[in-house]
């Protein structure tokens, strides 16, 4: 097991970095997209509500792998060439944003109705009230579930291995298939994933207890 | 337009639907096994047997925080090195069951914990044993709270079966790849078919779940 690490630490490090990088990029963009659709769902416009619903249900109910492969295999044929990392990260972003939209929507709805009423009664517009009053409060409810989404995101980023995204899983697979030491290689890869996800997961549990 | 009709010829569709059947088969078996195993593990974790619960809890945390894809690779490509060989179907079911049991154990534990402590105290004070209280009073109430997260876990299990395409399990995604591998013009129609089939199965399950939720309330 130590051998795998000492001989291949450079490849593993590149993979580790790529996994972190694509997770952070995907988190950033899926937060923006997800929050937008979450707000669509609480706005009093029927059309936006329907658009938000369709987006969320579509991307929640199709496997991430299918979405990722679509961007890696189909999109380059018709629109623009994407390398594996980009295609995978786009897929991850779209997939995760639907879950984040649900999380944020639940957070917004958990804020007491009186807050919005009070804000409106004080002369704020709907959007001002949303921005200054509701979202800051909703943010507190959504931090633990968002943390869990990020953990899922890191784990899900392993599908980049399917589209040659040079992430941790891909590098591990390459090492395993050249050295034939599959057993130990996958254990090392597993430990590297746990280095990211396990502390986060314990921290989120602690936060949940603290905020509850 | 003719290529669309060709892509959705009965032979191709039948081939895809057989894949959907494999997907559903793997999902149903894994759901049943992991529900049983996950409930047992979740209860063990909740009850707090000395040592046992702590160890079980740590193992659950390890598995939950690993990618399922890694477990699949490990089961199918890693374990043969130490003499455990499985065919793709068994490997897929084994890996998914291990992973999903850990996820379900966590859902079960937090479901039980969400039941008010007074319920157990009440049960004990009217003369029930701890086990009777757990089985008759606490678990049924916990079950109600567990339904929504359990169903979304099952939905993600169905979606995750697509990962087993890498260990050549002939499920839906694998078969779609075979079809568009023969003729690249089938690529778009195949991806549409994939999206529709997965969507229908998963969305139907989520509709059933919300119906169930409304009835229990």
From TrEMBL, chain A:
Residues annotated as domain ABC transmembrane type-1: 16-204
UniProt keyword annotation of Iron-sulfur present: no
One Pfam family from the record: BPD_transp_1
Primary localization: membrane
Domain of life per record: Bacteria
UniProt GO MF annotations: transmembrane transporter activity
Record-annotated membrane-spanning stretches: 12-40, 61-79, 183-203
GO CC list: ATP-binding cassette (ABC) transporter complex
UniProt keyword annotations, A-Z: Amino-acid transport, Cell membrane, Membrane, Transmembrane, Transmembrane helix, Transport
Cell compartment(s), UniProt: Cell membrane
Any single GO BP term: amino acid transport
Keyword field contains Transmembrane: yes
InterPro entries in UniProt: AA_ABC_transptr_permease_3TM, ArtM/GltK/GlnP/TcyL/YhdX-like, MetI-like, MetI-like_sf
Membrane topology: Multi-pass membrane protein
Family assignment from sequence similarity: Belongs to the binding-protein-dependent transport system permease family.
UniProt protein name: Glutamine transport system permease
UniProtKB/TrEMBL annotation, chain B:
Compartments it resides in: Cell membrane
Gene Ontology process terms (BP): amino acid transport
Cellular component GO terms held in the UniProt record: ATP-binding cassette (ABC) transporter complex
Molecular function per GO: transmembrane transporter activity
Cell membrane found in the keyword field: yes
UniProt cross-references to InterPro entries, sorted A to Z: AA_ABC_transptr_permease_3TM, ArtM/GltK/GlnP/TcyL/YhdX-like, MetI-like, MetI-like_sf
PANTHER family linked to this entry: INNER MEMBRANE AMINO-ACID ABC TRANSPORTER PERMEASE PROTEIN YHDY (PTHR30614:SF41), MEMBRANE COMPONENT OF AMINO ACID ABC TRANSPORTER (PTHR30614)
Protein family according to the UniProt entry: Belongs to the binding-protein-dependent transport system permease family.
UniProt protein name: Glutamine transport system permease
Protein species of origin: Liquorilactobacillus capillatus DSM 19910
């Amino acid at each position: 097991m130590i051998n795998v690490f000492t001989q291949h630490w450079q490849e593993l490090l590149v993979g580790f970095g790529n996994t972190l990088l694509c997770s952070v990029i995907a988190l950033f963009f899926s937060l923006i997209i997800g929050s937008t659709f979450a707000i669509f769902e609480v706005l009093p416009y029927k059309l936006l509500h329907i658009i938000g619903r369709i987006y969320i249900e579509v991307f929640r109910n199709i496997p991430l792998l299918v979405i990722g492969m679509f961007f890696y295999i189909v999109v380059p044929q018709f629109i623009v060439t994407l390398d594996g990392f980009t295609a995978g990260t786009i897929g991850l972003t779209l997939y995760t944003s639907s879950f984040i939209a649900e999380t944020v929507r639940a957070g917004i709805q958990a804020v007491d109705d009186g807050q919005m009423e009070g804000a409106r009664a004080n002369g704020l517009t709907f959007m001002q009230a949303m921005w200054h009053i509701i979202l800051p409060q909703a943010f507190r409810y959504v931090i633990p579930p968002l943390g869990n989404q990020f953990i899922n995101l890191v784990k899900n980023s392993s599908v980049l291995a399917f589209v040659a995204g040079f992430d941790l899983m891909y590098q591990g697979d390459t090492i395993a298939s050249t050295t034939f030491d599959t057993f130990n290689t996958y254990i090392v890869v597993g430990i590297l994933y746990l280095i990211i996800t396990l502390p986060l997961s314990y921290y989120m549990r602690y936060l949940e207890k603290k905020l509850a | 337009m003719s290529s669309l009709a060709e892509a959705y010829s009965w032979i191709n569709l039948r081939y895809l639907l057989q894949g959907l059947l494999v997907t559903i088969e793997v999902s149903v078996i894994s759901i049943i096994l992991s529900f049983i195993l996950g409930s047992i593990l979740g209860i063990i974790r909740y009850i707090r047997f000395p040592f046992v619960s702590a160890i079980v809890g740590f193992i659950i945390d390890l598995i939950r925080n690993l990618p399922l894809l890694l477990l699949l690779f490990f089961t199918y490509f890693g374990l043969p090195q130490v003499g455990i060989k499985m065919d793709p179907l068994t490997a897929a079911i084994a890996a998914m069951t291990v992973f999903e049991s850990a996820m379900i154990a966590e859902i079960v534990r937090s479901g039980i914990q969400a039941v008010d402590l007074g319920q157990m105290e009440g049960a004990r004070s009217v003369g029930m044993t701890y086990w009777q209280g757990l089985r008759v009073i606490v678990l049924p109430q916990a079950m109600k709270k567990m339904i929504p997260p359990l169903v979304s876990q099952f939905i993600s299990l169905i979606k995750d079966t697509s990962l087993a395409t890498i260990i050549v399990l002939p499920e839906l995604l694998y078969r779609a790849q075979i079809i568009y591998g023969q003729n690249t013009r089938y690529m778009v129609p195949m991806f549409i078919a994939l999206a529709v089939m997965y969507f229908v199965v998963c969305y139907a399950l989520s509709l059933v779940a919300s119906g169930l939720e409304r009835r229990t309330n």
